[in-house]
Amino acid sequence: SEPIFLSLFFHRSLDTTRALHPIEAAYYHQPHLKGRQDYGHQILAVMLVCNGKIFNYEMILYDKSKSKIQLVRDIADKLPTVPTSSYFLCDSWYTSIDVIESFIKKGFYTIGALRTNRILYPKGIRSKASEIAQTLKPSDTSLVTVGGREFYIWRYEGKLNGIENAVVLLSYPEKAFGNPKALRAFLSTDVSLSVGETLSYYTGRWPIEIFFRQCKDKLALDGYQIRSAQGIKRYWLLMSLAHFMCAVGTGRFCSFETGYHEICDTIQLEKYRYLFQCAKESNDFDSFMKFVV
Predict the structure, then answer these.
(1) Cβ–Cβ under 8 Å, residues 39 and 121
(2) Which helix H or strand E contains 130, and what residues bound it?
(3) Are 181 and 171 spatial neighbours (Cβ–Cβ below 8 Å)?
(4) Phi and psi torsions of 92, nearest 5°
(5) Burial, 195: exposed, middle or buried (Cβ in 10 Å; 0-12, 13-18, 19+)?
(6) Which of 4, 86, 226, 229 is the most buried if burial means most Cβ atoms within 10 Å?
(7) Under a CB-based contact definition with an 8 Å cutoff, are residues 53 and 247 in contact?
(8) Where are the strands (E) in 30-98, listed by range?
């Protein structure tokens, strides 16, 4: 009965600018937080989250053969129809009508960030979200707590261009009300959710960044040395399996970090047991070395 959340994230896996030998399927791309281009791979990761459990559903090597919007639509088309209430969580790049309709066909509502230049129709008047925000007073909003922080939220339910009915939330942090740079907008196609539920659900997309950090720190995502595109995809598959085994392979579901350390401790213990057994069956150092080697 718990909702299922599906989240997408484009990630730069490896900067190969200084590689001595060519690596397949690498190209120049512009990271959002850098002032220069990198040469490397981009991964589209599809993550599933349910009841606190995080799983990597698919990793795709983005090769520019199709647009990112079309790639996301293709992912939606391949999904099975979900048995419970489910939500596609995304940033403002993917709150387009084409993507939303693709996920609706599979039973997924969409909750995502929205550009503040999107057109709304409060009381039938065509206005940009940013223009509406400039007219708001604190008394027009509700003060909502999300993740320990408070936000002023204005709720709109109605028509958007291409969407017959949806909820849009305009949000300011409590101490930055009226600051245009602090304005954030969010869209939900599930109009039955409360403001708090919508924002709480949206924060469920952040564990995907934790997944990438764990894979970089522990599973060599930013350090593999493979030249062929097929080999890279196989590595990503094995990496995803290793991440999954750390979460479920200890006989219970646990966090990746907990499972990783337990499995590492088990492997180390098995090494000590093997060395101890070899020592028991050896009469001198030379015979011990024969067993070990």
Answers:
(1) no
(2) helix 129-134
(3) no
(4) -70, -10
(5) buried
(6) 86
(7) yes
(8) 38-50, 53-62, 86-90
CA atoms within 13 A on the CB side of 10: 19
Q: Which of 82-86, 162-166, 190-194 has the lowest mean pLDDT?
A: 82-86
Q: Between 229-248 and 256-280, two packed helices, what is the crossing angle to 10 degrees?
A: 90
Tokens standing for residue 106: 């599979």
Question: Could you report the per-residue pLDDT of 247-280, keeping only the tens digit for each?
Answer: 888 888 888 889 999 999 999 999 888 888 888 8
Query: Cβ distance 22 to 228 under 8 Å?
Result: no
Q: Looking at the predicted structure, is the pLDDT value of residue 70 above 60?
A: yes
With residue 143 as reference, give the H or E element that holds it. Answer: strand 142-146
Measured from the Cβ of residue 70, the count of other Cβ atoms closer than 10 Å reads 13
> Residue 130, Cα to own-chain centre: how many angstroms?
27
Angle between helices 97-104 and 68-78 (to 10 degrees): 10
Burial label, 125 (beta-carbon count in 10 A; 0-12, 13-18, 19+): exposed
> In residues, how long is the chain?
293
Two tokens, residue 59: 């990793």
Q: What is the mean pLDDT of the chain?
A: 86
3-state secondary structure of 84: coil
Position 114, amino acid: L
**Beta carbons of 186 and 113 less than 8 angstroms apart:** yes
- Write the single-letter amino acid at 236: W
C-alpha dihedral sign at 233, 234, 236, 241: positive
pLDDT one-digit tens code per residue, 76-89: 999 988 888 899 99
